[in-house]
Amino acid sequence: MAGIKALISLSFGGAIGLMFLMLGCALPQYNQYWPLFVLFFYILSPIPYCIARRLVDDTDATSNACKELAIFLTTGIVVSAFGLPIVFARAELIFWGACALVLTGNTVIFATILGFFLVFGSNDDFSWQQW
Amino acid sequence: MSGFLESMRCSECVDWGEKRNTIASVAAGVLFFTGWWIIIDAAVKYPNMEEFNHSYHACGVIATIAFLMINAVSNGQVRGDSYSEGCLGQTGSRIWLFIGFMMAFGSLIASMWILFGGYVVKEKPVVYPGIAVFFQNAFIFFGGLVFKFGRTEDLWQ
Question: Measured in Å, how far apart are chain A's first and last C-alpha atoms?
């Protein structure tokens, strides 16, 4: 039951983040759909960590080089998701207000993804460990 | 009331010793990719050759190769206390690391040279691309140092 509650609250967070992203794109005074490219970063961001977790059996060591490389790459993807709208705004492709909305959406979405890993990555009663 | 706070120790809530490698990896990632986004921003703002010569990108590429070379060998390999010899052994890893650090310092020095020789001394109207090249290389260099020396290899055993 705790898993269901966490799942519902996390999906609410994801919906809020996507709402901020779409607001930055679709408000009539902005009306530029360039920020939708950050969706690629949302999809890519969990992939390095999932690969590292499948590749390494972390039974005895608290950390290892492969996992740290995965964290490094994940950080890079997150930084890129914040950098792309700022570069769009500096290139005067989108307005700074739209950029701020996209950055807010980024923060909410990445907090949701992090929460997903914290909730479902550790406990054993939810058998989604095979990811 | 006395001894109320004795049972509370905040350093034990989160074990920072075990989190050290994670924090160092995150910090290195932030530095490295911020550096690259700074140069992307400069390239987007000044696309023509007069304001931002395209050959200045070579500096950041060398710094990135140096970043990969430095972090490809572990500290244990250089000290010689790893289990396997590897393909070239301890001497090979030392030479590899030496070349990597030489490229890292070289790219940092070259970026300063670009900033001063290409923009400040010539008194160009737009100095921002030179500053962007310098900050890109500085961020990549310090990201490499954090990724190399911020992590401890004791946690791998």
Answer: 21
- The answer, for B88 touching chain A at a CB cutoff of 8 Å, is no
Cα distances from B129 to residues A67, A121, A124, B137, in angstroms, run 35, 43, 52, 12
Summarised one tens digit per residue, pLDDT across range A4-59 is: 888 899 999 999 999 999 999 999 888 889 999 999 999 999 999 888 888 876 65
Using only the alpha carbons of chain B, give its radius of gyration: 21
Quick count: other Cβ atoms within 10 Å of Cβ B44? 13
Measured between CA atoms, how close is B32 to chain A, in angstroms?
A: 8
CA dihedral B64→B65→B67→B70, nearest 10 degrees, is -170
Domain positions in chain A: 2-120
Tens-digit pLDDT profile for residues A91-110: 988 999 999 999 999 999 99
Helices (H) and strands (E) in chain A, counts: 5, 0
